[in-house]
Write a structure and sequence with these properties.
The structure is a homodimer. The first copy, chain A, is mainly β. In chain A, strand 8 and strand 9 form a beta hairpin. Chain A is globular. The two termini of chain A are about 35 Å apart. The interface between A and B is large, with 76 and 76 residues.
């Protein structure tokens, strides 16, 4: 796995076995088919994306349409998983758990999205930044009471 | 899997195989060892909990101490995964993706926590509601710019 490490990066030998499994429960359709097309972060584009849930799980959407915002978990299945310290192309060396890079031991991304429309098992949302056909892992209601912290600070970041 | 379904609940036959695997990268230590002791949600207690990261991943914490808040993903490994519609003991029938129940196809919980202190691979945080020794999946910096939506509404909820 230790191919292509940049200077300053640190890789780890991952455990030999997984501890649990996940199902891909749908796909996320976005306008971006190459990584260099993706917006830098989820507020970098107001493009509408589509969450296409597998029909098998359709009944689980009951009540979702009443939410203005959702938490979406998805699997960055093309990302390597062994880097503990990363050197972004434009940026400084940081620990994996201090950044939102898809490269991490469990490449599960979390995005907060605005729900625009639901039609059957297709949800139109704004706020995703991932590649087209990224595997969907979970959809949750976003509760401002527990999920919103407007004054939170990431000290290393300028923004 | 279809044991113990309450009236009104809907279960699904899950796929035969998982699509991807996850590593348990640490454990979450909380004061709660039985489900009925856990707070109803993450703001239901200001108890300090400890994220105990495996030493293997220690280097990935570089920069985390500069964050006031973190996104924590963890695996609710005791939850069943096949319910699409659930009937909470005190509440109404809802689709799984409209609630934050641990019972879901991929029982990965997301909590926003306040970081109190870091000591080596142990992070003291406030804002968790899970059972003691729950497996840790991921730690991410919480960016108010993309993660905070103070006016988000969950229409079915009174609060």
């Amino acid at each position: 796995m230790n191919e292509d490490i940049r200077e300053g990066e640190i890789a780890v030998t991952l455990p030999e076995k997984f501890d649990a499994g996940v199902y891909f429960i749908g796909r996320i359709r976005t306008p971006w088919t190459r990584r260099d097309q993706c917006p830098k972060n989820a507020r970098g584009s107001d493009a509408a994306c589509t969450i296409a849930l597998d029909e098998r799980y359709a009944a689980a959407l009951d009540g979702v349409a009443s939410c203005t915002h959702l938490v979406v978990l998805y699997f960055m299945h093309e990302a390597r998983r062994d880097l503990l310290v990363q050197m972004p192309r434009h940026g400084e060396r940081r620990g994996t758990f201090a950044i939102r890079s898809p490269v991490r031991p469990n490449p599960i991304a979390m995005s907060v999205v605005r729900l625009v429309r639901t039609e059957g098992t297709r949800l139109t949302v704004v706020g995703l930044d991932c590649l087209d056909v990224t595997p969907l892992i979970d959809i949750k209601p976003y509760f401002a009471s527990v999920d919103s912290v407007p004054d939170a600070v990431v000290g290393w970041s300028k923004t």
